[in-house]
Amino acid sequence: MASESSTQRRADASPTAGRSYELAVRSRAAVLAVLVPLVPGGVMVLLPAGEGLGVVLLLAAVALACWIGGTTATGAAAAVLAVFVDHLLMVPAPHSHPVTLGIVTHTVGFAAAATGIVVFYSRVRASRSGTERARAEAEGRASALARRVALLAPMLDAAPIGFGMMDRDRRFRYANAQFASFSGRPVADHIGRTAGDLYGPEVERIAEETVGRVLETGQVEAGVRLTVPRPGGERHYLTNRYPVRDSGGWIIGVGFGTIDVTEQTELEDSYHRALAELTATIRSSPMAIALLGTDLCFRHANREFQRLAGDPERSLAGCALGAAGGLPPRVAAMPAQVVRTGRSTNAADLAVGPRFVTVNCFPVHTDDGTLVAIALIALDVTEQHRLARLEAEAEALRATAELATKLEQAQRLAGLGNWELNLATGALTWSGQTPVIVDGPARSFAGSGELPVHPDDAERMAGHRRRLLTEGTPFADEFRMIRADGSVIDVYCTGDVIHDDAGRPVRLWGTFQDVTAQRANERATKEAIRTAEQARAQLEAEHQALQMFVRAMLPPSLPEVAGAELAAAYLPVVERVDIGGDWFDSFRLPDGRLALAVGDATGHDLRAATVMGQVRNAVRAYAFEDPAPGEVLRRTDRLLSLVPELNLATMVYGVYDPQTCDLTWANAGHPAPLLRHGDDVSALTEPGGVILGVFGDDVRYAEATVRLAPGDTVLWFTDGLVDHRGCDPVTATESLMAVLAGADDAPERLLAEITRRMLTGGVQEDDVCLLALHRAGKPGTPAGSVAV
Amino acid sequence: MDPGTQLTVQPVGDGVVKISGELDIRTCDQLEHDAGDLADRGGRLVLDLSELTFCDSTGLAGLVRLHKRAEAAGGTLVLRAPVPRVHHLLSLTGLTRLFPIEP
B40 lies in a domain? Predict the structure, then answer.
């Protein structure tokens, strides 16, 4: 406004004449404006001489401005501005107005200009000094922050928590090593960078959101969870954010402490997952499961347990154990027992209503052994119970059936049946075996109630029955029963009375057993024993007769011989009832010599004995006619050969002359006699000869003669002594020769010794005859010679 | 009586009969029964005695009877390979003169 009015006035008073002056004044003022700031004092001296009061005022204004603004560019500028204002307002005035007016207008103009400049300048100055002060304060705060960071850095650098700080521009001003490790970049990379620079736009968004909120509200944000996608997978961080203020309360940044909780988070996740699964498992379990605190209040109970407690819909959590009314007292008592004893307990097959459960109750301990809860688990075993009961019933049925079968089998095997007579109805029942025993459907038995007893036994059995009915006397007796086919069987029958509670007889019952086969066996056995005894007695008698016969055939005594001793032995097999054909004989011949014979007729029966007797008598007869041994044997052979039946016999026959001590003999197939001379024993094997009874007439038996020396002994024997299954006959003969060599001289003792040594210790199979001839005298004379 | 006494009479063809076991009063009849028909046919009848371990006088009588039956039918009874004990008995009784004996 002021500028507009001054322009108006200058247009009115500015003809072309005033232009040059105006230009001159302006040029001068410009020069002054340049010079004034340089040499204000000089200007102050020069100006009063040229321009009068206006100039003085101008200079005063300049001086005032310089005083106010200082001798600086600002002061110079204010002076120039004041000069221009004054010039515009005051310079044209001298041309149209008196000096007084000029002084007044200059003064007023100057005052106005000066005032305006001063006011303006003071405002500018005030404004400028506020900004600078703010700047200084900010710089102070920043340096305070830097100092604080510098002070805390050594402590924070190594902290296991990630510390960082951002200024208001969201640029990192600090990050410790732990924080840097989150990004995997050096600490130095963080300073001056934003989260976006370091982690990408996603994180920058999160940072902007959270940091911005702290900066805006000044509130601490604690426990903020961040999930940050990282190349290796998502990482989870737990961070606290707080405003960092200067001493004036001004928020200069946001600090944060961050820890990586990825592992914990995953652990928690898995824990939560496991917990959820476990919870679901318990909830879905067909077993009733409940957990109680040590105060015996329910903490958890699944639906099944709630059902066990009476109402599946009624939650038991928080409910006291005693308030869960549906539980059996035994179960309700278990947790308290567990608390008291510290040991688990269980109860099997408890009846809960119509169901059965098996309950386990056990203490729940933490790792350090502290009892924290009691668990109750109940398993419904109703089905098992039912199956077990069915199984037991089936087993019982099987056992009964088996027993019945076995009884039936036993009765069948034993020929045993049982009967029962109902006295009230007269009905007679019997076991399945009964019809078999009584032959057919036991019609007579069933029809009359009477057993078809044999007439001979009827009275006795009727007596049994009467006493059974009238006196209750049980019976057990055997009787004969006539079967439907007319056959008679032996029956062993028992009977007894069954009384009712009042003691009245109501039924008769008993068993009967077909003992026909047993009785038949017993009879047969008795008969067999009797027959065997008879046979044995008969054999005994026969044997005795044979023995008597044989002994009758043998000489009752032996003849006396001068200068010699004779002994004989007949040794039958004691155990046998038959006899052998062994025999011996010795008799004096009419010429005084001694005949000696030992033989064996084939066979062991009466015929053998007969042959033996024939031979013995024939020998005696032939010897009386012609005692020559060869002739006696030849005739005997012919005699036996003439008999139609084949009769074989062996024999040694000899003649001993007591005068000459010569022994002459012949042998018909018999074991050779043995000669003992001194210590030597020899077998008189030559001559041999064929067995009697085979060849007949054409056989001639050679003879041999041996002269016995004093002390010599000749032993005749039959083959039973050396020829039996137990040994080889050649070996046995050698044994016999050895025994003979060492035996006593006296023939009786010699034979006893031979018998003892040769026939004991084994089984004697055959009869044996022995005959010994001993010539008296001392040995030492020359050996006897043998002449054939 | 010894129930252990056993005899087997086994024709092995070609007129040969093998006699195994023991020949005594208990088995003699069996021999004459089993081998008698062969003896009655005449011809040459060989009794293989290599496994006859025992023979007594009754057994000898049985052999002699078989011999007589073979002889009556115009045949011959030959004894083959008797063990020493049986051969000894045959020698002692002179029956080696009656029976042809083959080794």
Answer: yes
DSSP-derived secondary structure letter, B74: T
Position B22 in a domain: yes
Asked if the Cβ–Cβ distance from A690 to B89 is below 8 Å, we say no
From B58, B52, B84, B74, select the one nearest A691 (Cα to Cα). Answer: B58
Contact B93 A600 (CB under 8 A): no
List of chain A residues whose C-beta atoms are within 8 Å of the C-beta of residue B32: none
CA-to-CA separations, A177 to A184, A186, A195, A389, in angstroms, rounded: 10, 8, 16, 75
Nearest CA in chain A to B90: A669
Write the CATH number for B81: 3.30.750.24
Of B54, B68, B88, the CB nearest to A646: B68
Inter-residue contact A397 to A375 (CB < 8 Å): no
A606 CA: distance to closest CA in chain B (Å): 13
Q: Is residue B28 part of a domain?
A: yes
Determine whether the interchain pair A688/B92 forms a contact, defined as Cβ–Cβ distance below 8 Å.
yes
| 3-state SS, residue A430 | strand
Question: Domain total for chain B?
Answer: 1
Cα separation, A651 vs A584, in Å, equals 9
Of residues A732, A727, A731, A757, the one with CA closest to residue A742: A757
Q: Which residue, chain included where needed, has tokens 């204010």?
A: A78
DSSP 3-state of B13 = strand
Rounded to 10°, the helix A729-741/A747-759 angle is 140
Residue A614 C-alpha, separation from nearest chain B C-alpha, in angstroms: 18
Residues, chain A: 788
Report pLDDT digits (tens) over A492-539.
Answer: 888 888 888 888 888 888 887 888 888 888 888 888 888 888 888 887
Q: Which one-letter DSSP state was computed for residue A343?
A: S
| Structural domain containing residue B18 | 7-102
Give, to the nearest 10 degrees, the angle between helix B57-72 and helix B28-40: 10
0.90 cut: is pTM over it?
no
Contacts of B94 in chain A (CB under 8 A): 668-669, 688-691
Q: What is the ipTM of this complex?
A: 0.88
Residues of A in contact with B84 (CB under 8 A): 728, 730
Peptide bond before A687: cis, by omega within 30 degrees of 0? yes
Average pLDDT over residues A90-110: 56
User: In whole angstroms, how far apart are CA A241 and each of A203, A206, A230, A236, A260?
Assistant: 15, 13, 21, 16, 15
Spatial separation of the C-alpha atoms in residues A229 and A182, rounded to whole Å: 12
- A498 in helix, strand or coil? strand
CA angle A279, A280, A283 (to 5 degrees): 85
Q: If interface means Cβ-Cβ distance under 8 Å, which residues of chain B face chain A?
A: 22, 25, 54, 56-58, 60-61, 64-65, 68, 84-85, 88-89, 91-95, 97-98
Confidence of residue A438 (pLDDT cuts 50, 70, 90): low
φ/ψ region of A68 (left if φ > 0, alpha if ψ in -120 to 50, else beta) reads alpha
**Which residues on B lie below 8 Å from A646 (Cβ)?**
61, 64-65, 68
Looking only at the bridges linking them, the beta strands covering B44-55 and B16-23 are parallel
8 Å CB contact of B85 and A691: no
Domain assignment present for residue B1? The answer is no
Contacts of A689 in chain B (CB under 8 A): 94
* pLDDT, tens digit, 9 for 90 and up, residues A682-698: 988 888 888 988 887 77
Q: Which residue of A has its CA nearest to B92?
A: A669
Contact residues, chain B, for A604 at CB < 8 Å:
25, 58
The pLDDT score that the predictor gives to residue A190 is: 86
Can you tell me the distance from the alpha carbon of B24 to that of B1, in angstroms, rounded to the nearest whole number? 12
B92 with A604: Cβ contact below 8 A:
no
Residue A713's closest CA among A753, A756, A761? A753
